Amino acid sequence: MSDSDASGEHERDESDSKPDTESRPTSAAARRERRGTARPAGKSEARPGSTRPSGKAGDKVAKPAPDAKGAPTPKRDQKPKKASVFARIVRFIREVWAELRKVIWPNRKQMVTYTAVVLVFVVFMVALVSGLDLGFKQLVGLVFG
User: Fold this and answer.
1) Cβ atoms 57, 42 nearer than 8 A
2) Using one digit for the tens of pLDDT, what is the confidence trace for 10-22?
């Protein structure tokens, strides 16, 4: 160790040791480039002075969730209180009304077109079933006489 090392002249501040590329990317292109140059997961090399254990690629360390309110966790055997019958009916009607607002209603021209398509399809199916019924009736008459 030289005298200059002992004096601490060559020590760098933590903010100086990280290059600008280590900062969080601000654009999508920068994020893609950073992902492309990043080391693949699971192939990490042991860094000297690192105390972190090396795990498998998919291992994640679970962190305890911060307790914002400081309240105890509710017990599992406690059932949530049911709302009154009237409150549930009102909630149901509100939810139905909200869903009906999401519906795209057809205009008159579309409605006429859809109705005509349905009627033509129903007439076709009635004719098909009637024709098959008549055909089977004739077939049974010929076979069993």
Assistant:
1) yes
2) 555 554 555 555 5
Residue 136 inside a domain? The answer is: yes
To the question of pTM greater than 0.70 for the whole model, the response is: no
The answer to whether position 37 is within a domain reads no
Question: Is the CB of residue 114 less than 8 Å from the CB of residue 106?
Answer: yes
Sequence-ordered list of residues with C-beta below 8 angstroms from that of 82, at least 6 positions apart, any chain: 88
CB contact at 8 A, 67 and 75: no
Residue 134 lies in a domain: yes
Element spanning 119, H or E: helix 108-144
Residue 97 to residue 34: CA distance in whole angstroms? 47
Question: Among the residues of the chain, which ranges form H helices?
Answer: 3-7, 14-17, 28-37, 85-102, 108-144
DSSP letter at 51 equals: -
| Side-chain half-sphere exposure of 11, counting CA atoms within 13 A | 6
